[in-house]
Amino acid sequence: EQANLQRIVHGFFNENVLKPRYRGQEPDQARLAELTGPFHRFASILDRHLRERSYMVGDGLTLADFTLAASFCYAGRARLPWDDYAHIQAWYTGIDRLPSWQTTFPQRPS
Fold first, then answer.
1. How far apart are CA 84 and CA 104, in angstroms?
2. 77, 109 in Cβ contact below 8 A?
3. Given CA atoms 100, 104, 108, 109 in this order, what sign does their dihedral have?
4. Which one, of 66, 100, 74, lies nearest residue 82 by Cα?
């Protein structure tokens, strides 16, 4: 499920960030519509998973947390439709507050 969600998130990033910035193209609204349904399907699974957990696997940070968090670090710029997923947002906020995570960005994403 994580790999599917990451692929979808990267699709939003490609359409809303990379295409306009590097190709001078507008986002493909049809492609964004295609991504939205699968995003909600996989995000709802992840949100339920994180309802009673602080981390993706076990009781502490693992590579799974960092790998998935990397997909969400540009959620705002990618215009992810994640407003309804409070547990994902809380999990990501926890990761984003880690000093070790913050130093990975030369310039913090907005």
1. 27
2. yes
3. negative
4. 74
DSSP 75: H
CA–CA dist 11, 102 (Å, integer): 24
Taking only the tens place, the pLDDT of each residue in 26-85 is: 999 999 999 999 999 999 999 999 999 999 999 999 999 999 999 898 899 999 999 999
Cβ atoms of 88 and 72 within 8 Å: the answer is: yes
Which tokens belong to 15? 């359409």
Beta-carbon neighbour count of residue 62 at 10 Å?
12
Of 45, 79, 46, 82, the residue nearest 64 (C-alpha) = 46
Own/partner contacts of 97-105, CB < 8 Å, gap of 24 or more, are 98/61, 101/66, 101/69, 105/73
The residue written with tokens 């999990």 in the block is 91
Q: pLDDT grade, residue 3 (50/70/90)?
A: confident
Global confidence as pTM: 0.87
